[in-house]
Amino acid sequence: MKKFLFTIFVTITLPLFFCSRDAGNTQTDKSVQISKELPLPDTITVAFYNVENLFDFNLDGTEYAEYKPGAFGWTEEVQKIKLKNAASVIAALESDIVGLCEIENMNVLRELQLELDKRDVVFPYAAVGEMPGSATLTALLSKFPIREKFEYPVERSRSILEVLVGRGDDSLRLFINHWPSKRHPESKRLEAAMILKKRIDALSPTDDYLIIGDLNSNYNEFATFHTEGFNDTKGQTGVNHIFKTTIAGTAPRSSKRFVCKEELASCGDCHYNLWLDLPHDKRKSYVFRGAPQTIDHIIIPPALIDNYGYSYLNGSFEVFTWDDALLRDGVPYRWQMIFKGKVKYHAGHGFSDHLPIRARFVRASVLASDTSSSHQHYCISVDPDLTIKGDFEITVDGWIRGDSRFSVSRDRRFAKSGNYSLHIRGMHESQNRTAARARLETETADKYLTMSMRGSGNISLRMRRPNDRWIYFNAPDFTLSKSARYKKWSSANRWTEIKMPLPKGAPDAQDIEIEIRSGKGEAVSMWIDQVRLR
Q: Which residue has better confidence, 255 or 397?
């Protein structure tokens, strides 16, 4: 029977539990141990996976109601199925280091290690946070020895876990996160980001580290959280501003743009979000009300593109679907709960509501000698001047869908300028609904909102100051009206220019809310570009 050794490490205020199944390794003097270690391999694969509530079958008192033994169909047999399903995904990931979240405790993490052993996928080393009273925790599995472990509490949330893995003279530091959910405003996620940033600022600029985890923030959070109502931080986001994954344009009121890998070396404490290595239509690890989300992250610092230690292998970041086995109808095949009357019970199948993500990191000396990479860059090709104009070269620029039956995405088919416009499409069978909406920041001098549109549908546009009355601009001529009228509009072969006077408001500048509404029973497919406040 395999022996487990538990060592308790005291951190800032809380204990951290670490598990190693190589008992001899922990009994050796560190300096002697390192001299006997082989170096890390030339290539390391790192993954992150939110396993969606992986609980054991013990009653500890901190479980969610549906995970208490015997409740809502949570039997020992069902618990084993969920454990085996999680192990199957992690085994298929073929990764050397796996960050996890929504792990109940070290006991279930140890059970997960045993399930992986049965698949000949051995992770001898593991670490898990320990937040008193927390139902789930952050954790890590590693094929390499764990040298350091720390934990940083986040008030009323999961703590941030720091783990240093290594062999010989090589090491890689990982920060595993699970930030407060969007039941909370951005200020709560900003707090978590600032706690982590303080720790990162204490590191050497040459330290190789990764920020991984479920940050409950999209890679373009700065462009959408204002519209979605989470902005209580005066425009500051944790993922974009604190870690500097975006930089401001050079003109007044310019929109931000993303930091590209090629800019990291000259950008000081900037970071690069690996989501930008994927084309826009591939960016999805989670789906909320039909909308693709990118809340799971692997974020790299300048040290992971330099000529020392390890560097990121261009183009290796991906969302893992296991040949679509982790998808059902295009969304993550989450652990299933079924209704019996008005009560939900465990169905005993499914995986997680998140998809895993993974990336590869290569010894810099090896990477420097490889000139065969033909990876396409989706960030550096963007003309920074276009972002100043407020077009859709970088992101959806704050627009989000108004209903799950509609989609809002950047599109290459039509563009008034640059390479992208915004494509809005969908249909509601029985009700007039908002297809897309945005919240735009104005200045006192602004009098009009203008935009270019093409496509077709029964549409009506409406605007208002926050909490004020709507004013309407109805197809096909989009003149001012007091109510909505859904008439046919078609401009498939040319751009239509729209100019709408802004609703009057208080003397000081106020935001403008704008919605594109679609008439019931008629499909809308339209493109917008060059949205301007003048």
A: 397
Alpha-carbon distance 329 to 348, whole Å? 19
Average pLDDT over residues 139-144: 98
Q: Which two tokens stand for residue 18?
A: 């670490």
Residue-wise pLDDT for 233-248, tens only, equals 998 999 999 999 998 7
Tell me how far CA of residue 153 lies from CA of 10, 64, 103, 239, in angstroms. 13, 21, 16, 18
Give the residue from 314, 308, 161, 293 showing the smallest Cα distance to 239: 293
Ranges 2-11, 40-49, 386-395: which has the least confidence: 2-11
Q: How far apart are CA 277 and CA 167, in angstroms?
A: 29
Sign of the C-alpha dihedral computed for residues 27, 32, 36 and 42 taken in this order: positive
Strand-pair category, 170-178 with 160-167: antiparallel
90: Cβ contacts below 8 Å, ≥ 6 apart = 47, 49, 98, 112, 116, 121, 141, 356
Q: How confident is the model at residue 4 (pLDDT cuts 50, 70, 90)?
A: very low
Side-chain half-sphere CA neighbours of 207 within 13 A: 16
Q: Which two tokens stand for residue 280?
A: 């826009």
**146 closest CA partner among 48, 20, 43:** 20
Q: How far is CA 169 from the centre of its chain?
A: 32
Q: In the predicted model, is pLDDT for residue 13 greater than 60?
A: no
Alpha helices in 149-247 (DSSP H): 186-201, 221-228
Closest CA to 273 of 256, 288, 287: 256
Return the biggest CA–CA distance within the chain: 80
Question: Cα(369)–Cα(362) distance, rounded to whole angstroms?
Answer: 11
Whether residue 8 is predicted with pLDDT greater than 60 in this model: the reply is no
Q: Residue 476: is the preceding peptide bond cis (ω within 30°)?
A: yes
> Which structure tokens are listed for 248?
């401001």
Distance CA 464, CA 511 (A): 9
Phi and psi angles of residue 108, each rounded to the nearest 5 degrees, phi first:
-75, -30
Separation of alpha carbons 440 and 464, rounded Å: 11
Q: Which residues contact 452 (CB under 8 A, 6 or more apart)?
A: 416, 495, 496, 497, 498, 528, 529, 530
368-409 tens-digit pLDDT? 776 555 677 788 777 767 766 668 888 888 899 999 999 999
- The alpha-helical segments, DSSP class H, found in 53-133 are 76-93, 106-118
Cα–Cα distance, 309 to 45 (Å, whole number)? 15
Q: 54 with 178: CB under 8 angstroms? A: no
Q: Which residues of 425-463 are buried (b: 16+ CB within 10 A; e: fewer)?
A: bbbbeeeebbbbbbbbebeeebeebebbbbbbbbbbbbb
What is the reported pTM? 0.90
Grouping H, G, I as helix, E, B as strand and the rest as coil, residue 224 is: helix
